[in-house]
Design brief:
258 residues, mainly alpha, two-stranded antiparallel ribbon, 2 strands, 75% helix, 2% strand, globular
Length: 258
């Protein structure tokens, strides 16, 4: 009986991630931007935990991997674009936008195309990831993801909204549809790309480095408690900087092997 029940736990965690992703879109429809973003981050947390739970219970399965990808597609491929679209084109702004010839209904359709682009790119990334599960990658890929992971891609797509919240809605430029669309497109391209991005899963830091990382983590948690949106904004900057740095390190490692 236990063997039948155990596999349900990681799948239930995955379903929680999916529920938060769908609920984020519900929050977006009501204009509750803070909760909409928070729900996507909750989805990311449960997405991180489902694999941990599966490995801890020894019940990892292909079914769980496929379910996880479907959840990721909704939570990180559909919900972020839907949220950004509604945030930049809410009722008031949509009425104002349609008065300007540059934002006629056909122009609004262009921004919806950006939402579709993110979804397509996320689906492509997840399909590639699943198709490569049984393939052994070269050693120099050990500390890198191929492209930006779906949860991180969602964070990049949401970055303009995070900045807007960090500055308490006082910088309306962050809400500009063109500016927001740039980040959504960038997130989609990075998810679908083969650009190496930093992965800390197999990192074995020294005792000193573990102490430093522990301090940084605690400082970040304190920042989240004190000023969550500013802390997330700083985290976004760090992640953006890590992309070119990671590429340089990857190329050096690959050159050594070659």
């Amino acid at each position: 009986m236990t063997e039948v029940i155990k596999p349900l736990f990681p799948n239930a965690v995955t379903m929680m991630a999916l529920a938060f992703g769908v609920s984020s879109m519900h929050m977006a429809l009501w204009g509750n931007w803070q909760m909409a973003v928070a729900f996507i981050f909750f989805a990311g947390f449960f997405d991180f935990m489902d694999g941990k739970v599966a490995r801890a219970l020894g019940v990892s399965s292909r079914f769980g991997a496929e379910l996880d990808s479907l959840s990721d597609f909704v939570s990180f491929g559909v919900a972020p674009g839907f949220l950004i679209y509604n945030w930049t084109m809410d009722t008031t702004m949509r009425a104002e936008a349609l008065k300007d010839i540059a934002y006629r209904p056909d122009a609004v359709g262009v921004y919806w195309a950006v939402v579709l682009f993110l979804a397509v790119c996320c689906a492509s990334r997840l399909a590639r990831f699943n198709s490569m599960l049984d393939e052994k990658q070269p050693k120099y890929w050990e500390h890198f993801f191929m492209g930006v992971p779906a949860p991180a891609g969602a964070g990049l797509a949401l970055y303009p909204l995070i900045l807007w919240q960090a500055f308490r809605g006082e910088v309306e430029f962050f809400r500009c549809p063109v500016f927001a669309s740039f980040f959504v497109i960038f997130a989609g391209v990075m998810m679908a790309s083969r650009v190496p991005t930093v992965c800390l899963k197999h990192l074995h830091p020294s005792k000193t480095m573990r102490s430093v990382l522990g301090f940084v983590f605690l400082a970040f948690i304190a920042g989240l408690v004190a000023s969550p949106w500013m802390a997330l904004s700083l985290l976004g900057i760090v992640y953006l900087v890590s992309i070119p740095v990671g590429v340089c390190v990857f190329l050096k490692l690959k050159k050594k092997v070659a």
